[in-house]
Design goal:
Blueprint: E1 2-6, E2 9-12, E3 17-24, E4 32-38, E5 45-51, E6 56-59, E7 67-71, E8 76-81, E9 90-97, E10 113-114, E11 118-123
Parallel strand pairs: 2-11
Antiparallel strand pairs: 1-3, 3-8, 4-5, 4-9, 5-6, 7-8, 9-10, 9-11
Length: about 120
C-alpha cells in the first residue's frame, strides 16, 4: 500500500493550491481517503475525507467553504485549497481507511495507511 502526496509549496495569503494523493496497492473503491494537517508543535488534525465508492465528502469547520476534496476516475484524490491563510501552514497528509457505517473519519485512528506528507507554507 502506498500513498503519495504532491502539490504543496509556498503561496501568498489568499492564494490557492491543489494537493494530490495518489494511491496504489489496494482496491481504491473499498477505502476512504482523509486529509490531515500538522503544524509545528501541534497535533495532526483531520479536516476532510471522501468515501471513494460513492464520492460522498465530509469536512470539518476549518475546511468548509475554502477546501474541496474530490477524486478522479483512477486512484487519485485531490484537495483544492482556496483563500489560503498563514494559519493553514502545515504538513498535509493523506490517509486511507475503511468506511465507517457510510461515513468517513476525520480522526487519525480511522486510518491504517498514511502518506509521507507535503509541506504547505502560506506567507503573510
Amino acid at each position: 500500500v502506498q500513498l503519495v502526496e504532491s502539490g504543496g509549496g509556498l503561496v501568498q495569503t489568499g492564494g490557492s493550491l491543489r494537493l494530490s494523493c495518489e494511491a496504489s496497492g489496494f482496491t481504491f473503491d473499498d477505502y476512504t481517503i482523509g486529509w490531515f494537517r500538522q503544524a509545528p508543535g501541534e497535533e495532526r488534525v483531520g479536516f476532510s475525507c471522501i468515501i471513494n465508492s460513492n464520492r460522498k465528502t465530509f469536512y470539518s469547520g476549518a475546511a468548509e467553504g475554502r477546501f474541496t476534496i474530490s477524486r478522479d476516475n483512477g486512484n487519485t484524490v485531490y484537495l483544492d485549497m482556496n483563500n489560503l491563510k498563514p494559519e493553514d501552514t502545515a504538513v498535509y497528509y493523506c490517509a486511507a481507511g475503511p468506511p465507517l457505517g457510510g461515513v468517513c473519519s476525520l480522526y487519525y485512528f480511522g486510518y491504517s495507511h498514511w502518506g509521507k506528507g507535503t509541506q504547505v507554507t502560506v506567507s503573510s
